Design the sequence.
């Protein structure tokens, strides 16, 4: 105990002067909430009874409060083959439904992709035709063609 503090047997708490509390608050900031001299802990002695060293749990019941308390479900052994088959048929039905949905989705994707490819091919074909038409038109009046036509003409003097 620090000087200026004393144990109050009736309240079961440490009582101290304001100077002592100020000194403790400088050292331990969180101690300020315990500074109330009016508060007491009447169950202090009863708390000691909870921690009786001679009654420590052993084995399965030996755990501390910081350990996680897992609740294990009791194990059930399935002896009935019908119950197993019922579970399998439910699972297989769920799998069948899932596979049907998957196949429908994939079929729709394939159809959509085929339509998209057809549109892209049509656009390319149209562009190719337009380019060929422009090239043909340009070739009809090209310089080479004009010169070759002039060379075939009879020049009259």
Sequence:
């Amino acid at each position: 105990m620090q000087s200026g503090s004393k144990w109050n047997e009736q309240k079961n708490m440490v009582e101290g002067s304001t100077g002592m509390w100020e000194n403790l608050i400088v050292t331990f900031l969180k101690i300020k909430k315990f500074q109330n001299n009016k508060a007491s802990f009447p169950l202090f002695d009863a708390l000691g009874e909870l921690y009786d060293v001679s009654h420590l749990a052993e084995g399965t019941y030996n755990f501390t409060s910081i350990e996680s308390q897992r609740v294990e479900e009791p194990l059930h052994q399935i002896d009935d083959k019908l119950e197993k088959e019922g579970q399998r048929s439910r699972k297989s039905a769920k799998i069948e439904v899932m596979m049907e949905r998957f196949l429908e989705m994939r079929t729709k994707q394939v159809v959509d992709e085929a339509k998209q490819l057809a549109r892209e091919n049509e656009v390319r074909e149209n562009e190719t035709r337009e380019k060929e038409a422009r090239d043909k038109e340009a070739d009809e009046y090209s310089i080479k063609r004009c010169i070759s036509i002039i060379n075939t003409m009879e020049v009259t003097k």
Summary: The longest strand covers residues 5-8. The two ends are 139 Å apart (CA to CA).
